[in-house]
Amino acid sequence: MKRRNLCGPAILAISAAVAMLMCAPVRLTSAALTPSQGEGESPTPQKPLRILTKTLPSPVVGYWYSEIISVEGGKLPYEFSVTGAPDGFMFRNFTDRLSGQGVTPGEYSITIMVADSTEPKPLTTSSTLKLKVVAAPTENPKK
Q1: pTM assigned to the model
Q2: pLDDT, tens digit, 9 for 90 and up, residues 29-48
Q3: What residue ranges define each of the domains in the chain, with the CATH number in brackets?
């Protein structure tokens, strides 16, 4: 029986517990794995950096709230900064989440700014989202 090589020259890497067959070297980009570039090839263009989250659900005063802010494009990792978050809320870069417990009902404008890791000058974008913190429901006393 004749053997056929279906992926061209392959590199067989063997470690103590794992054997891997790789058809082509790869490099990690912000969005996906792409084949390595040869000499003289231009880099894969990056998608523009943009914030995908357009609306935020309304948190209730006194109840825990957590919402992911979705971003695409640019080069990972992203660095976030948030202004205008009401008392009781914070944004954590390592989880990409706005979270906390509302203290005061009201409508707030939260500005989210994102920078990627493109060098020498990071790509940046921002978006202003409305967050309406609502009062907790009250129980009606029985008459």
Answers
A1: 0.64
A2: 444 444 444 555 556 678 99
A3: 50-133 (2.60.40.10)
